[in-house]
Task: structure prediction
Amino acid sequence: PLLRALAGTTSTFNFFDSFLSAVYVLYLTRALALGPAAVGAVFAIGGIGGLAGAAIAGPLARRAGVGRTLAGTIALAGVGELAIGLADGPPLVALAIVALAEATVQG
Result:
């Protein structure tokens, strides 16, 4: 039952995340009016978030348990994806929102 739930959650998240990936750069450049350097910064910050997440994953799983860690991280990634869609305002504000959201999703 646990493996089935994990597989279902992961595949559902990845399925819908692939929709975002298809239009993400267009959204950043056209809707949020971010330039190429800002888009690069968003992805770089996402990479840093991924490294931070990898660094704390083991200790967090040992402390909180694997199940709670998986549930918490998928929920946190979902909140990050939602924040990407809610980013609005001047380009600098939108950049800060999507950069933080990207770090959360990748981490």
